[in-house]
Amino acid sequence: MCKRWRSVKENDKIVSMDIDIVYLVIVIAVVFFSMVLHELMHGLTAYWLGDTTAQEQGRLTLNPIKHIDPFLTLLLPVMMVIAGGFVHGMPVFGGAKPVPFRPDRVKGGEWGAALIGIVGPLTNLVLAFICFMIAWFSGVLAVQGGELYYAGGIMAQILTAGIMVNLGFFAFNILPIPPLDGSRLLYAVAPSGVQRAMAVIENAGLLVVFAVVLILSQPLSYVLGAIINAILKFFVMIFGA
Predict the structure, then answer these.
(1) Closest-CA residue to 165 (of 123, 119, 219)
(2) pTM of the prediction?
(3) Residue 187, pLDDT above cutoff 90
(4) Where are the domains of the chain?
(5) Residues catalogued as catalytic
(6) Does position 140 have pLDDT exceeding 70, yes or no?
(7) What's the whole-number mean pLDDT along residues 47-56?
């Protein structure tokens, strides 16, 4: 069976409205599924560490409506796809409504809070690995001339979207910028003065995320791209290519 191979870095360029709609639907579906698991793992980890806040607010659920943030979950990923995603150097990423928790209820103090924060991005990393493994053993992915390529077709689009969207979520959310998840790990080791400054930044919430994406788009693209490409190379190395 003849397959048409495309570079993973190129992804699908917009060539017709039909392809746009299909790809947008795939990305939105992957975003919903991935972010629900991301946020659910935050809540379950907090619950495991003794805080029931997420449970009390109905966030320990697979219902995406409970987790959707109109900007981070819907508008931002769709804007990334329409702008071209990896075609223009910026991976698709996004987020959801933060799962609430009370640090004073969490076992382990700041380290417990750090674990709650980092488990979300790690969930996305695991999902990306699972999609990569399925794509690799099903023949959707292959290495040619040192580059990673994928075959054409709807299954290839679903699996590569699962890989790239989840790696984008992982890379973006581990950045140590409040209120992103990676800041929780930095908060655990930072001196009190830095913690107070981070708390002030975190209070701005979505405005900080929007400013980072808007103002620092070029360096952000470089950093996220470097993280994602390094992980992809590691995945390929695992499977012995």
Answers:
(1) 123
(2) 0.85
(3) no
(4) 5-238
(5) 39
(6) yes
(7) 93
